[in-house]
Design goal:
By secondary structure, the protein is mainly beta. The chain is built from no helices and 11 strands. The chain has a 4-stranded antiparallel sheet, with no helix packed on it. Strands 5-6-7-8 form a 4-stranded antiparallel sheet, with no helix packed on it. The chain is globular, with a radius of gyration of 13 Å.
Length: 111
């Protein structure tokens, strides 16, 4: 499918894969076939998490947290968080998205 580093997120039969050329959504059928549903922008490469109806992933090189529509892969919100490592994975707590950065952590309050 792609070159990938980090963890995936799963919702039913859909797996969100952090590919080095952009996050991808893949449906896995009962017989093990992979069907790509969408491919996000090439800068959204961080390990994703699902919560609040959105898929959260970072652009590690740009220091941006993206809130993606899990059905389309389109970024519906962007928040500057600062430099992160390639393996930085957002964590969810209530309405907060916590992003580990090279300088500590950034907490983004969602609506």
């Amino acid at each position: 499918l792609c070159r990938s580093f980090g963890g995936t997120a799963v919702d039913g039969d859909v797996v969100y894969v952090p590919c080095t050329d952009g996050l991808r959504a893949v449906r896995i059928t009962a017989d093990g076939q992979l069907h790509q549903l969408w491919h996000a922008d090439s800068d959204v490469t961080g390990s994703p998490v699902l919560g609040g109806g959105l898929l959260w992933s970072v652009d590690p090189s740009g220091g941006v947290l993206h809130a993606l529509d899990p059905d389309t892969g389109r970024s519906v919100s962007r928040t500057d968080v600062g430099t992160t490592s390639r393996f930085a994975t957002p964590a969810l707590s209530g309405r907060d998205v916590i992003v580990p950065t090279m300088d500590g952590a950034v907490i983004v309050r969602t609506s």
